[in-house]
């Protein structure tokens, strides 16, 4: 779980109710017209803006539904937006006999559905009414291609070299049935019903072309739950993601997205997503004292400040020692090992969800992190950092990697296009 942070980003749009909106109840579109003036400070697309604190110290609930991310754009949604309260990850495999033609039709259906749902509109057909009366709730739907997709569609020559399978790591205890997949969909929203509605619509749209390989559910703190915007906490209680690259960084695009002139051409402005289901061994972790936990991470638990002193965003002083000559940030501390300047500049944009899938028969919680990181090249982003963690991270005894996937996520679709069109029709 590399030590990198994320700022909240939202895109403004509060369309008024349209003619023909449903007469019963308050329609999703009508809600947007009334909720737009309720106190969310929204940034322009690609900006880094936090939620404004409402007078009572939290975002009004009526504003949660009005947040809207845009489907069309340079990049797909769900990458630079802030952490969302509810998430679903789902991977599909193309069925036997389904090839390039069927995949193109599927991505066209999915893109149409995603565009409508992200605008707060019903699914284009057979809508379930699950999200009736709700606004878009900052819904994002993101699509990616796995390694096996290219062989099944006859597009092997278009498979990126960066999509080669990840190497094995010593902390891996991978369940192959919950790893990889031909197609990957990430769904995020600030309302659980809106997120489920999108998941159900995407599943139904798969029709006879693809079947679900695996599906995972995640969550984060809801916007407005804290008095001011702050880095999220994971289920270990730690601030998780303090050193994330930010859109305001001069090299942000270079680190996270494939350049417009990159190869293959269909991946221009796209990114690569590494997805890992990381189980946290919470019973063992919670036996440690707060001081011991802080030594494992290298940061104070209360405020995320480095053990070398300062505040959360204070640069970590790796050479600072105590009176005995011991480093204040231990040599095997997680935050020390994952620093980009200790990994040849390797960096990735982390955008995870926590998960809890129940309690085992022995009382052990099945809980942890759905780790999602974005980078222009996983061989220069995720892989070198994970290899270094493998060699002596103090956090390793308290986590277990149980599922893994790597997906090529193409750039955003232009108006009138569907995601992946440049690959499938190029």
UniProtKB/TrEMBL annotation:
The free-text note explaining how the cofactor binds reads: Binds 1 heme b (iron(II)-protoporphyrin IX) group non-covalently per subunit.
Name the domain of life this protein comes from: Bacteria
Among SUPFAM superfamilies, the record links this protein to: Dimeric alpha+beta barrel
The residue ranges of the Dyp-type peroxidase N-terminal domain are 76-220
* Signal sequence interval, chain numbering: none
Q: Mark out the compositionally biased spans (Polar residues).
A: 1-10
Asked if DNA damage is a keyword of the record, the answer is no
Q: Which reaction does it catalyse?
A: heme b + 2 H(+) = protoporphyrin IX + Fe(2+)
Q: Which PROSITE patterns match?
A: DYP_PEROXIDASE (PS51404), TAT (PS51318)
What is the protein's known function?
Involved in the recovery of exogenous heme iron. Extracts iron from heme while preserving the protoporphyrin ring intact.
What name has this protein been given in UniProt?
Deferrochelatase
The organism named in the record is Streptomyces achromogenes
- Annotated gene: efeB
